[in-house]
Amino acid sequence: MARVHLLRRKSTLALRQRKLALLRMLPLPPQAIRASVVERFGTCGKANCACHQGQKHGPYYYLTQCLAPGRMQKFLLKTPAHQQAARAATSAFNEFYDGLEELSQINTELLRRGEPIDGSKP
Ligand SMILES: [Zn+2]
């Protein structure tokens, strides 16, 4: 769920200034990936392995991405560099998305007030 910004009591000037700041700090992040990095531990097929007594194998890290309801993409992140790249990519997406959501809420409030929303000037 998106974070809800409380904007109704803010002045139109304050909204426009925050909008300008968001537009300045939100270049499209080139490495962005909308996904999650998940940690998993598992058991193997060897009957006498310690993993069946609680010492599970892992952690293993996977990137999981929901493309549509019921359509998940998932793959193993094999190396620490691969895992770090995935974390950086998902963080970049989330930060960008949070800023875009805030911009959307500001524009909604400006539209509600009958203010123009197509400009980027305060
Ligand atoms: Zn095992």
Distance between the termini: 28 Å
Helical/strand content category: alpha+beta
Portion of residues in beta strands equals: 15-25%
- Which molecules are bound besides the chains? zinc ion
CA radius of gyration is 21 Å
Poorly predicted residue ranges: none
Summarize the topology.
Blueprint: H1 12-25, E1 36-42, E2 57-68, E3 71-76, H2 80-112
Antiparallel strand pairs: 1-2, 2-3
Bound molecules: zinc ion.
Protein architecture, described:
The protein is an alpha+beta fold and 122 residues long. 39% of the residues lie in helices and 20% in strands. The protein has two helices and three strands; from the N terminus they run αβββα. The protein has helices at 12-25, 80-112, and strands spanning 36-42, 57-68, 71-76. Strands 1-2-3 form a three-stranded antiparallel beta sheet, with helices on one face. Helix 1 (12-25) runs antiparallel to helix 2. The chain starts with 11 loop residues before the first helix and ends in a 10-residue tail after the last helix. The structure holds zinc ion (ZN). Residues 43-44, 46, 49, 51, 57 line the site of zinc ion.
